[in-house]
Specification:
This protein is an all-alpha fold and 486 residues long. The chain has 24 helices and no strands. The relative contact order is 0.04.
């Protein structure tokens, strides 16, 4: 209604609204501010075809009114003013709205006014600029330069809003083959500037930093995590090569017990990155980065990397499968971690390997070679009779190698939860031999056999036809608990 009124009658009716707008913007009641926001949005939209002199006079009046309104924003009306600016700016030539855009750019962060005032100004600014998209590259550059020193702001709500604004800026950095790049700020430049500052978090040395420096680094990392999560979920390009430079830092801090908030941000960012669609260039960078993390001295980083890599490989399986080299490198990373000295890492690697087998990701020509290798490892001697004369380190190495073989065989069993291929009965019988091995070997075998019984119980009358009588007898002894009264 207000748009049509000002479009049809131009500034003839504006005088009737001036006193009322001044009064409404000085009030802090929700109804008054909402009314003022609706009138101003309609006024700006309706003045689209006014001549220059009328438009100049309008903004001479409107700029002080808007400054006054932004100073009186409350928690209930922040959304109204954000909608007002977004509506006023939508599908409009920024040259005809330069008064409004310059007004929004006037020092959105003023530390003397408190965090809510800063957040509200940033929100209103975001509403106005986001509708302009690629048209305001110069303003985006100015805003990015202005916001960078505040990425470590002491208030979380301000950092969250800054992260959202920066995400909107980088959404214009879209790669289209054969098209000139955007004039807006580039993600690559920002990330190349930030990554060196976060390198210390990669090696678990943050505890060595004291005082304000430590707080600033952690705050910067939290803001970057939010920016990455926003870009990964909202950008049409998904993940880009430079984003994987943060992966070692994310994996190292995913289980940061001292700061649960930081751990949550890392989990959110890793989740978004693992579900992103990858280009061929990104697949190569991702594999290189994962291979580096798989050799990290921190077992928590290696374990987190496995969880991430599992989701990433399954979401981009068809891209990875286009090159045998990528398939081999993916399998080799998992097999390498299957021999890890840490039990938690080995068990996760076995789970990931079972998933790869289940999806037929492992090439057929390597299938039985891997199985035979695991059978050979599972026969590694860890006899109790020789413990007194065997070096403890050698014994531990033998148990690790044998456990690796058993976990590999368990992965073959877990890869078939609803069927029994021809080679599976022999593997089950082999696993039964290890049920009394030292821990953790026996524990892995018992869990695998228990899962097999659970998943094949309903159709066992069909599956048991694949077993010989001797195999069935041995399997029954393993799967059926002895009766107390037997």
């Amino acid at each position: 209604m207000f748009k049509m009124l000002f479009r049809n009658h131009e500034d003839e009716v504006l005088e009737w609204f001036k006193l009322e707008l001044n009064r409404l913007t000085q009030e802090k009641q929700e109804s008054h501010q909402r009314c003022a926001a609706e009138i101003i949005a309609g006024l700006i939209r309706g003045s689209k075809y006014w001549n220059y002199s009328k438009t100049q006079a309008l903004w001479d009046f409107l700029c002080p009114v808007l400054r006054n309104a932004f100073g009186n924003i409350t928690n209930e009306t922040i959304g109204d003013w954000g909608t007002c600016m977004a509506t006023a700016s939508e599908s409009r030539d920024p040259n005809r709205l330069h008064w409004l855009l310059e007004l929004l750019m006037e020092e959105p962060i003023r530390e003397e006014e408190g965090s809510f005032a800063e957040t509200s100004r940033l929100y209103v600014l975001q509403g106005g600029l986001s509708q302009q998209e690629w048209r305001v590259a110069e303003l985006n550059k100015r805003l990015m330069s202005y916001l960078q020193p505040y990425l470590t702001h002491s208030y979380q709500n301000v950092r969250d809003r800054i992260g959202s604004v920066v995400t909107n800026i980088f959404l214009q950095d879209i790669y289209i083959p054969g098209v000139n790049p955007t004039h807006s700020p580039r993600k690559k430049d920002f990330m190349e500037n930030v990554i060196p500052k976060l390198e210390i978090l990669k090696d678990d040395k943050v505890s060595l930093i004291e005082g304000d420096d430590r707080k600033e680094i952690l705050r910067l990392f939290k803001t970057v995590c939010q920016i990455l999560s926003g870009l990964l979920t909202r950008s049409p390009n998904g993940a880009t090569p430079e984003m994987f430079g943060f992966l070692p830092v994310l994996c190292a801090n995913e289980s940061f017990d001292i700061d649960p908030e930081l751990s949550r941000d890392c989990v959110m960012c890793l989740s978004s990155m693992s579900q992103a669609s990858l280009s061929a260039e990104c697949v190569e960078i991702a594999l290189i980065t994962v291979e580096q993390i798989s050799s990290s001295p921190s077992w928590k980083s290696r374990a987190t990397c496995l969880d991430f890599f599992q989701c990433l490989a399954f979401n981009n399986m068809f891209v990875i499968a286009t090159k045998k080299e990528w398939v081999d490198r993916t399998v080799n990373v998992v097999l390498k971690l299957l021999k890890d000295e840490r039990l938690e890492v080995r068990e996760k690697a076995a789970k990931v390997f079972g998933g790869l087998l289940h999806c037929d990701f492992v090439p057929k020509e390597d299938f039985f070679a891997l199985m035979n290798g695991f059978l050979k490892n599972s026969r590694k001697d860890v006899s109790r009779k020789k413990r007194e004369i065997i070096d403890p380190k050698h014994l531990q190495s033998s148990i690790l190698e044998r456990h690796c073989g058993v976990l590999g065989l368990c992965a073959f069993v877990n890869a078939h939860p609803y069927d029994v291929p021809d080679y599976l009965p022999d593997i089950l019988v082999t696993l039964g031999i290890h049920i009394h091995d030292p821990q953790p070997i026996s524990g892995s075998v018992r869990k695998t056999l228990s899962d097999f019984k659970r998943t094949h119980h309903e159709t066992w009358h069909e599956h048991k036809e694949k077993f010989t009588e001797d195999q069935l007898l041995m399997l029954t002894d393993l799967l059926v608990s002895p009766s107390y009264y037997a």
